[in-house]
Automatic annotation (TrEMBL):
Domain CheR-type methyltransferase positions: 15-288
Residues covered by region (Disordered): 1-21
Official protein name in the record: Chemotaxis protein methyltransferase
Catalyzed chemical reaction(s): L-glutamyl-[protein] + S-adenosyl-L-methionine = [protein]-L-glutamate 5-O-methyl ester + S-adenosyl-L-homocysteine
Species of the source: Oceanobacter antarcticus
Length: 288
């Protein structure tokens, strides 16, 4: 940690000027680093977001400017690069987000897989870009509701670039307001209050089903597959088209024959991949 004694940074007297000055050169350097290490494309429209997130790292390290922070990042990548990546990564999530995907799981896909995989008794699902784990745990709730026999080998892989959110996911502890909108039955069956009464924790049966791992999607993947289903929602919108093509081609390679892919509501595979058949509402089936 840089000596906090040099931190004394505050807003100007009128309170309207930014705490730190971020030049075009600073922003371009941050965008280049983000692209190189994460594949995320930071256009000019992301400037305000970048300012807010990197300003927090400047305060945390006790530095006084974007220029000094970037110099520190270059000189001490072992200490700071993971914090930089965590700051840039977007981690918006919620339970049962984009509920049409879970309707598809409940009503169509999981009942079909229970019959289709009855000989192998194996089910593999991947939540790519899992954030704090709420997507993966929602998938696990759907799997439990589908009533797979107890002798099945069921695993849900949850990966993310951000090590901080993965730690939260592994604990499975969330503020009470994160489950306010859930059905009473879901709350009763799958959550328990923490001792302080201010949070809830996912029940052990769900936590045991989900395995969290750090993974950069643009680096080699150590998993073997194949997966029956991959969720990768609201992730590729930050990648350029070449990275998207490579990523979806890789997903197809890791999916079982007739495997399925769910992407975000603002994403589509048009002009990106011809290896999937659209089924509607951003659900796709692998065709080759």
């Amino acid at each position: 940690m840089v000596n906090a004694a040099i931190a004394g940074v505050s807003r100007s007297a009128n309170g309207n000027e930014p705490e730190f000055d971020m030049t075009d050169r600073d922003f371009n350097t941050i965008a280049e680093l983000a692209g190189r290490h994460t594949g995320i494309v930071l256009g000019p429209h992301k400037r305000t977001m970048v300012y807010g997130r990197i300003a927090r790292r400047i305060r945390a390290t006790g530095l006084v400017s974007f220029q000094r922070y970037l110099a520190y990042l270059e000189q001490h990548p072992d200490q700071e690069l993971s914090h930089f990546i965590n700051a840039i990564t977007t981690n918006l999530t919620s339970f049962f987000r984009e509920p049409h995907h879970f309707h598809f799981l409940d009503q169509q896909l999981l009942p079909r897989l229970k019959l289709q995989n009855s000989a192998s008794k194996r089910l593999r699902i991947w939540s790519a870009g899992c954030s704090i784990g709420q997507e993966a745990y929602t998938i696990a709730i759907s799997v439990l509701r589908a009533g797979f026999p107890k002798d099945w080998d069921i695993r849900i892989l949850a990966t993310d670039l951000d090590s901080n959110v993965l730690a939260t996911g592994e604990q499975g502890i969330y503020p009470l307001d994160h489950i306010e909108s859930l059905d009473v039955e879901v709350k009763r069956n799958h959550f328990r209050p923490t001792p302080d009464g201010r949070s809830v924790q996912i029940n052990a049966d769900l936590r045991n089903m989900v395995h969290f791992k750090r993974l950069n999607l643009l680096e080699p993947w150590p998993m073997n597959g194949p997966f029956d289903l991959i969720f990768c929602r609201n992730v590729v919108i930050y990648f350029n088209k070449d990275s998207q093509r490579m990523l979806f081609d890789h997903f197809a390679d890791y999916l079982a024959a007739d495997g399925h892919l769910c992407i975000g509501h603002s994403e589509n595979l048009a002009g990106v991949s011809e290896r999937f058949q659209p089924l509607g509402q951003t659900v796709y089936r692998k065709i080759r």
